[in-house]
Write a structure and sequence with these properties.
This protein is α+β, with helices and mostly antiparallel strands. Helix content is about 25%, strand content about 40%. It has 6 helices and 21 strands. It has helices at about 1-15, 30-40, 100-120, 135-160, 165-175, 355-365; strands at about 30, 40-45, 45-60, 65-70, 75-80, 90, 95-100, 180-185, 190-195, 200-205, 210-215, 215-225, 235-240, 245-260, 265-275, 285-300, 305-310, 315-320, 325-335, 340-345, 350-355. It has a 6-stranded antiparallel barrel with strand order 3-12-15-14-13-16. A 4-stranded antiparallel β-sheet has the order 4-11-9-6, with no helix packed on it. The protein has a 4-stranded antiparallel β-sheet with strand order 8-7-5-10. Strand 18 (about 315-320) and strand 19 form a beta hairpin. The longest helix has 29 residues, at about 135-160.
């Protein structure tokens, strides 16, 4: 009979598996009175609308789209400076410097000589079959005149490429005298942020003389840690404040996410465009940037409810009647005071939110360890 009973037991194990004889989850018993003494509190695990707040520091920089450089297209010497210090405000089209160039003078004189020579033969006519030798001579003069007109136009084009305006070319023709200096004009309205021009100095073609920047709109460049990057998108709004201007609160949207991560800080740069109210903002100022990211409904628990063992995250689930079950969970996004739980807990379960470390110590003293993750 005993042998028969053993066979039946073995058959049941093979048929239903060891789950039939699985032990109940191990729990820690904490009487109600002791719970009050240690300040134990529980919270209900719920699906909640989750907002992630990202706080970082931004730096104000020039809007690169509103910068301009002033240079010259010819070699020469700076004969006069109208803008002689950095930080000066200039208007678009305002004269900022005059340059003397022997090459420009020579080209203007050549242009004037060609005009005079062309006018001398402006009565030439086209040759025909009845032309006399004198007529043929006149026809040759006409051909030369056509060539001269093309050379005149080439000289005019060269002057225009050196930024000599049509009005100045007309003045050269009327007066019959070259313009001694080339006047440089500001290509944009703004502040001179860099000045390399010095009166009397020699300059080469293409050499930068001034940088002009429009400060009416500036950029705020903020650093976002790479673990927060998945939550960042173009068009997200941020609140921008400055500690030294408590009354100034700006709202801006992300208009660019830079395609690279800084190796030393593990951050990605994002850019905002902000208006410069009353000119109070200056490049290289620091700002506070705060983004509110809506993550939708997530299953979350308080951060204090989670015990991080270094390898796993454990919570103590209220099993009722003073019993608490240690359980391994998988966490997701950290939203500040709350942490998303992606595995290990169900909606409406209760977990210990205060005094969880005391319960964990009690469990370790009794040799109670959390079971495998469900």
């Amino acid at each position: 009979m005993m042998a028969k009973g053993c066979y039946i037991t073995a058959f049941i194990i093979l048929l239903f598996g060891t789950a039939l004889f699985a032990e109940e989850p191990k729990t820690v018993e904490i009487p109600v009175e002791k719970q009050r003494q240690i300040g134990l509190k529980t919270v209900v695990v719920e699906m909640k609308p989750t907002i992630k707040t990202i706080r970082t520091v931004g730096r104000i920089e020039l809007d690169e789209k509103r910068q301009a450089t002033v240079n010259t297209k010819i070699d020469g010497w700076i004969e006069r400076l109208y803008v002689d210090y950095t930080g000066r405000y200039v208007k678009k089209g305002e004269a900022i410097a005059e340059i003397y160039s022997p090459e420009l003078m020579a080209t203007q004189q050549e242009y004037l000589n060609l005009i005079k020579w062309t006018k001398r033969y402006n009565t030439a006519k086209t040759p025909s079959v009845t032309d006399t030798p004198d007529d043929i001579s006149s026809s040759l003069n006409a051909a030369l005149t056509d060539d001269a007109l093309a050379i005149v136009e080439a000289a005019r084009t060269r002057l225009k490429r050196w930024d000599i305006t049509d009005k100045e070319i007309q003045r050269i023709e009327q007066t019959g005298k070259p313009i001694r200096t080339l006047t440089l004009y500001s290509p944009a309205s703004g502040y001179v942020t860099e000045k390399k021009a010095v009166a009397g100095a020699r300059v080469a073609a293409g050499e930068k003389l001034f940088d002009v920047a429009d400060l009416s709109t500036l950029w705020v460049i903020a650093d976002i840690y790479e673990n927060e990057l998945p939550m960042i998108k173009l068009g997200q709004s941020a609140a921008i404040t400055l500690s030294y201007y408590p009354d100034m609160k700006l709202s801006a949207k992300i208009d660019y996410i830079y395609p690279g991560i800084a190796a030393d800080t593990r951050t990605v740069k994002v850019r905002f465009s902000v208006p410069n109210q009353n000119g109070r903002l200056l490049p290289q100022m620091f700002t506070n940037v705060e983004l509110q990211v809506n993550l939708g409904n997530r299953l979350v628990v308080p951060r204090d409810a989670i015990i991080d063992t270094g390898k796993t995250q454990v919570v103590y689930v209220d099993a009722g009647e003073g019993l608490f079950e240690p359980r391994v969970i998988t966490v997701g996004l950290n939203t500040g005071d709350m942490v998303e739980v992606t595995r290990g807990l169900k909606d409406k379960e209760k977990v210990v939110a205060a005094a969880s470390f005391l319960i964990d110590s009690e469990a370790k003293l009794k040799g109670i360890a959390p079971g495998p993750q469900k």
